[in-house]
Amino acid sequence: MDQVGVQSAKLYAKSRHTFSAALLLWTASTPSASMACACGCGIFDVGTFASGSGGTAFLEYDVLDQKVNRSQSAKAPESQNPDKEIKTSFYTAGARYMVDRSWGVEVAVPYWQRHFKTTTDDGSSEAHDHGALGDVRIKGLYTGLSEDMSTGVSYGLKLPTGDSSYAHFDPDTQIGSGSYDVLFGVYHLSRLTSDNTWVWYSQLNIDQPVVTKANYIPGNEIDVAIGLHFNAWTYGASSKVAPVLALLAAIRGNDNGNQSNSASSGYKRLLAAPGLEVDLNRVRFFAGADVPVYEYYYGNQLASTVAYKVTTSFDF
Asked: Which of 92, 93, 21, 8 is nearest to 50 (CA)?
């Protein structure tokens, strides 16, 4: 690599280091490319962009309260949906390790705590609370598609480790999907200014179930993100505060199988995702929110008005 290429690679590596907690896709280091269910509870996470060799451990907490019934692109009468509320806390622990500047591996282990309120056939109301291990994701990372390491891919599997047999949850509200999914993602990172004050990124992630239960086949999902990162607020010798703003789009297909509710599954969503990262060199904190801009749900599904996220990561 020539001297210009070396300098460019260093700048991009610096950018990705700042991103490592803030930009968690709909894959990489968090409960997934997407913590999604057929009832519209997808949370879009942008995957981390690895930088150099070494490891990063992280903890993430997301919370989502779905209690607004929507059909197509509008709010719908709650009487059209027997389900009344799905409130979920998502806890995820994981780690990423880069063997060298190009190759790495990542593991994310989620735990979900879910409150589900619904109406029975006789019209009475009932509520159930259940917590369990979610579906573990294992991914390989390759960051060397371009000489300056600004473009990379991820590839891996979602394993059916999550509980998908809780008696009081329907298949589309279970914590686990019961399926093996193939995961694939690609990202590109580019600076808008030569000093990296402004950086933009784009990312595409695909989640495709390939081995499923015969009676429930979850829909596939495609997620796209484009975002802007401001990297000029500093304090002290090595600490930074960086605001991030992203647009996140998700398309999920309908479920299938005789235990699915195919007519009321699948969606198209566009979210605005503002956030703020505090970078203390090896330790970073990130807080953000996902706010719906446009939503289209098939049938009747419960939706939320906002989702919140807090992440802590540590380089080792």
From this structure: 21
Domain limits of the chain?
3-315
Cα 308 from Cα 193, distance rounded (Å): 30
Residue 164 to residue 172: CA distance in whole angstroms: 9
pTM to 2 decimal places: 0.87
Fold of 3-315: Lipocalin (2.40.128)
> In angstroms, how far is the first alpha carbon of the chain from the final one?
27
Structure confidence by residue, pLDDT tens digits, 42-95? 544 544 555 567 899 999 999 999 999 999 999 999 999 999 999 999 999 999
Of 141, 188, 103, 133, give the one whose Cα is nearest residue 27.
141
How far is Cα of residue 184 from the mean position of the Cα atoms in its chain?
13
- 37 pLDDT tier (thresholds 50, 70, 90): low
